[in-house]
Structure formats: C-alpha cells, structure tokens
Design goal:
It contains two helices and eight strands. β7 and β8 form a beta hairpin. It has a single domain, classed as 2,3-Dihydroxybiphenyl 1,2-Dioxygenase, domain 1 (Roll). 19% of the residues lie in helices and 31% in strands. By secondary structure, the chain is of the alpha/beta class. The longest helix is centred in the first third of the chain and has 14 residues.
C-alpha cells in the first residue's frame, strides 16, 4: 500500500485573473501560504504542505463563471489549525468584501467540524475548516454529509 502524504497542489483556472490574483494574494498569505511565483497569467502559493495556483483561462473562455455542479471541481477546502483561525479567515473575508456563502459555523461532516465557505471572483468555492482530533477517522465517528454540499 502507498500512503499519501497530503495534497501537493491544486490549480484553479479563472476568467477574471486580475480580480482572482487580488483575492488570493490577500487570502493565501493570511493562511501561511507564500507567493513563490507570479507572471502575467499565473500565480502560485506554497505553505502548509500544499500549494494553490491561479491561472488565466484560455481566451475563448473569458467571461465565463465557475459552475459548481458541472463535471470537475466542486470546491477546495484548506485545513486550519483551530476554530479561532477559521474565525480569523471569516473576518478577513468580510474585510475583503468577499462573497461569503456560509459564515464560520459548525457542520455535520465530522465531530467538531467548523468551517467558513466563500466564493472567489469567478464563483469558485473556497472552504476553510477545522476538525479536531482524527475527524471521521476517529473510532466513534462517522461521515455525515447530510446534503450540506448543495449549499
């Protein structure tokens, strides 16, 4: 068996590159991800054993928005180290004027699940969560999506 050592990176393709660059350039460093590369059509953040890249879409897709229910990405979720950190992200998103889908709150996915959910300028959903202990891998825990991913 091979044991995965986390998720290396996710690359998000956006149509509003400058707005997305501004959004992620505030959010990612606040979460400990350092910008390590930037060009006219691509920016890349690394930290916490993962990376997030933002790239400009091909010209024929300019002006399109992300559709969560289509084939492909549903949302990304970055793990915080505490509930307080989730609250700090929520406050930052509010300060940024981001579209907050769900303010910091408890969820049903695992015991102690706490999260905030927002959308970037293209409508790509970004979640930040905290799960204490081993989450759904704890001996007495169970996974309970209960339809919440529809929101």
């Amino acid at each position: 068996m091979i044991e995965v050592n986390g998720m290396a990176h996710v690359i998000l393709t956006v149509s509003q590159f400058e707005a997305a660059r501004a959004f992620y350039s505030r959010l990612m460093p606040a979460m400990g991800l350092e910008q390590v590369y930037e060009s006219e059509k691509f920016t890349y953040f690394v930290g916490g054993r993962t990376a997030v890249g933002i790239q400009q879409c091909d010209p024929e897709y300019d002006g399109e928005r992300f559709v969560q229910g289509r084939v492909g990405l549903h949302h990304i979720c970055l793990r915080a180290r505490s509930r307080e950190d989730v609250d700090k992200v929520g406050a930052l998103l509010e300060e940024m004027g981001a579209h907050i889908v769900s303010p910091p709150q408890e969820g049903t996915w695992a015991p102690g699940y706490y999260y905030v959910l927002c959308e970037d300028p293209d409508g790509i959903r970004v979640e930040v969560n905290y799960v204490p202990g081993q989450g759904v891998l704890a001996e007495d825990a169970s996974f309970n999506p209960s339809g919440d991913y529809d929101t």
